[in-house]
Specification:
756 residues, Neutral Protease, domain 2, 24 helices, eight-stranded mixed β-sheet, ARM-type_fold, AMPO Aminopeptidase, 35% helix, zinc ion binding, 3 domains, metalloaminopeptidase activity, alpha+beta, Peptidase_M4/M1_CTD_sf, five-stranded mixed β-sheet, 24 strands, Immunoglobulin-like
């Protein structure tokens, strides 16, 4: 028997019992109301039994009986031709209210909060341990647990997918086990056939998902909401196999909900967006948050005219006028991903376009790749992920160096975006393609988000959020941050961590690849210039890592905090993200920095060319999948000739880099090699000049003496950051020095990192 989940205050609970029921597809149908600061609507979830239940039930009669009852087939044919009323291309709240009459005469026992509180329900959900234990059901009903917080759940019902006209094509292999359960079995069989359609039928699949989501309800389900979960059951149903595989939930978000933020943009207009909350999307819609719950989705979002809806979606949505003053936006995704990657931004965004930057410019970028880098893109392998329309198997996608992109911003920032950002995107996309090959996603939107955004950037499928802070001060900060977020398309999205505590897999790779991409995006840099920039970056990151290690809790410095237990789940699939809600962790960079230095250490040990080839191979093998640290390390070490391994093993890397706090031992032993870099030495020389000047001014006191004029060299942005950080270590700097620094380097015109 598994113990009751009792997360610590600072740990984020993942409550969904994914081992028993696994969501495969979401359909969201939402209205955004800026007056009440509420998103309201319906979500329909399509399920399959989870892997643990499939394993334990496959030997039973229930799963293996092969006979088909003729009566059942006749009844199925009749059921499939029930006309679906009020079904249209765009659903609305009114249509779903019409369907609510199909509740089989059940009495509404919900209280004001939408919770069903009858005695039978209260006794049936005493603990998820009892209700989810498939080995010992007793008389308990099966309990479906979803991740949910800060939501008002109004109603939950089973969806009668068998009522959809034309759905009979998905019933041909339906098997009968019990005549009394024929209708329930038929519905679940339809959902099974629908979610397992082959990838080349994805358009048909989305069409029938939409049709099924608009089908009438066939009975309300009992539910209760807790602090972190929504628990649903159907009276008399004791197994995940028999539990409804398509359910519809009516709900509202709360203005204080932690998944989205309601604010105004830089032009003073209202907007709402998902800002990367520690609770992910569970306060936006009920979902299964564990990474293993890879799912696809469709979403229709209605809002007032004048607002633009941007979202994680493969299509560039065009608004549809529903009625006066109301627009509907529709997006879809066919690549299964965790629900935490779903992103939405609704605001009065303006698309930034530049006439002078034509398609011809993009063409030149796309085909300026070195031919020597093309070979790996033609290396076809069978993908290791679940079936979906994969771009790695698409010959046209494999040749696409620059995917279609758009830029959106508040009206007042459009000119700044046009100045640098528009030109940088194709260069950075092309550099990423040159390094890693096929872009995992078919298009990209870039949005400049409101000023309350707490970081410089955030990547989600098909969309990147950037802070307004990256826009001023030239192209350097904007370009490097863009490269970092583009790298997440491969590491963090197409390849995700199976255990969220291993976030170094995402952030460490993105930080390391940021330098590679940016060097190539700048074009025509010499080898020495590239090496100089990267060593300068290493110097800055070393200082940040050193400071963070000295000023943070040791347990927060460990990249694999669960160590040997990493990736393990409870019997139901529930788990916790260690330190997931700890406030100071949000501002820490240790996963970025230690992850970066580990990857840099491995590249220096193996050689950069071989190392990048291994990363390309890893992308080819593991895209569309969830990984643990050892998946990358084992593959990498298998490819290294023995003479280069230098005693490297997965165990030694765990011990020295991932499972310990503080500065990794190999990094200390390596020494600060970046100090030998010309750009770093140049800064050291300038620091010395400033310190001497400061000393002379302090000694001269108030007497005005003619000073020998000191000539200071022009510095790059990263050099300026290093200079200022070095000068901050001095005990005293006189006001005149600060004025001279401002005048010499025009600090207020530099980028945000220098100004900070």
């Amino acid at each position: 028997m598994e113990t009751q989940l009792d997360p610590m205050k600072d740990d984020l609970p993942l409550m969904a019992n994914t081992s028993y029921m696994l969501v495969k597809h979401y359909i969201l149908d939402l209205d955004v109301d800026f007056k009440s600061k509420v998103i309201e609507g319906i979500i329909v979830l399509f399920f399959e039994p989870g892997i643990r239940y499939r394993k334990t039930s496959c030997t039973g009669k229930e799963s293996c009986q092969s006979q088909v009852d003729e009566t059942y087939k006749t009844r199925a044919s009749e059921l499939c031709h029930i006309p679906a009323t009020n079904v249209g291309a765009c659903s609305s709240k009114t249509e779903y209210n019409d369907f609510a009459v199909c509740g089989k005469g059940e009495e509404d026992t919900s209280d004001k909060n939408g919770n069903h509180s009858n005695k039978e329900q209260a006794s049936g959900i005493s603990s998820s341990r009892d209700c989810c234990d498939i080995e010992n059901h007793g008389n308990n009903d099966f309990l479906l647990v979803l991740d949910c917080c800060d939501l008002s759940v109004l109603k939950v019902e089973e969806v009668d997918v068998a009522a959809v006209s034309g759905i009979e094509k998905f019933t041909r292999s339906a098997k009968l086990t019990d005549v009394s359960k024929e209708l329930e079995n038929l519905r679940n069989q339809i959902v099974h056939e629908l979610v397992t359609l082959p990838a080349d039928r994805w358009k048909e699949q989305l069409y029938y998902f939409t049709r099924c989501s608009q089908a009438p309800g066939c009975g309300e389900l009992l539910f209760t909401t807790g602090t972190w979960s929504l628990e649903i059951r159907k009276s008399g149903i004791q197994t995940p196999t028999d539990f409804p595989h398509a359910i519809r939930i009516w709900y509202k978000t709360k203005p204080e909900g932690r998944s989205v933020t309601w604010t105004t943009d830089q032009s003073g207009r209202p907007c709402v967006y998902t800002m990367g909350s520690p609770v992910n999307n569970r306060a936006l819609f009920p979902c299964q948050e564990p990474p293993v719950a890879l799912s696809t989705w469709q979403a229709s979002v209605r809002t007032a005219v004048g607002f633009v809806v941007l979202m994680s979606g493969e299509n560039s949505a065009e608004p549809v006028h529903l009625r006066e003053g109301i627009l509907s936006w529709y997006y879809y995704v066919t690549m299964p991903m965790p629900a935490s990657t779903f992103t939405i931004a609704v605001g009065c965004w303006q698309e930034v376009k530049q006439q002078s930057f034509t398609a011809a410019n993009q063409t030149n970028i796309e085909f300026s790749l070195p031919s020597s880098r093309a070979d790996f893109r033609w290396h076809e392998e069978v993908c290791g992920h679940v079936e979906y329309p994969c771009r790695f198997q698409n010959p046209a996608a494999r040749l696409q160096a620059v995917i279609p992109y758009r830029v959106f911003a508040p009206w007042c920032l459009m000119e700044r975006c046009e100045e640098h950002l528009l030109q940088l995107i194709p260069r950075c996309l092309s550099a990423a393609y040159t390094t890693l090959g096929t872009h995992p996603f078919s298009r990209l939107d870039v949005l400049i988000v409101p000023s309350n955004f707490s970081s410089l950037g955030m990547a989600s499928p098909h969309i990147i959020f950037l802070s307004q802070s990256v826009l001023p001060g030239g192209s350097h900060l904007c370009g490097t941050r863009l490269c970092h977020e583009i790298a997440h398309a491969w590491f963090g999205l197409a390849i995700g961590a199976r255990d969220w505590t291993e976030e170094w897999i995402s952030e460490g790779f993105a930080t390391y690849l940021e330098d590679i991409f940016w060097a190539r995006a700048q074009q025509q840099l010499s080898h020495d210039e590239v090496k100089g920039q990267q060593e300068l970056k290493a110097s800055l990151r070393w200082r940040r890592l050193r400071d963070e290690v000295q000023n943070s809790e040791e347990e927060l410095q460990i990249l694999r905090p669960k160590k040997e237990s990493t990736g393990e789940l409870s019997e139901s699939g529930a788990s916790v993200v260690k330190h997931g809600l700890k406030a100071e962790k949000i501002f820490m960079q240790v996963h970025y920095l230690k992850g970066y230095f580990l990857l840099r250490f491995l590249a220096r040990t193996i050689g950069e060319a071989s190392y990048l080839a291994s990363i390309q191979k890893f992308v080819q093998k593991f895209h569309g999948q969830l990984v643990l640290s050892q998946d990358f390390l084992c593959m990498l070490l298998e490819d290294i000739p023995e003479q280069k391994k230098s005693g490297l093993t997965v165990e030694s890397i765990f011990k020295n880099w991932l499972d310990t706090s503080g500065i990794p031992k190999p990094l200390l032993e390596e020494g600060e090699t970046w100090k030998e870099c010309r750009l770093v030495q140049q800064v050291s020389g300038e620091v010395t000049k400033w310190i001497r000047t400061n000393q002379r001014i302090r000694k001269s006191g108030k007497k005005k003496r003619k000073q020998d004029e000191v000539v200071f060299q022009k510095l790059l942005s990263d050099q300026l950051v290093l200079l200022l950080e070095s000068l901050l270590e001095e005990k005293t700097l006189c006001p005149r020095i600060l004025q001279c620094l401002e005048k010499t380097y025009q600090l207020r015109e530099q980028d945000a990192e220098v100004i900070h």
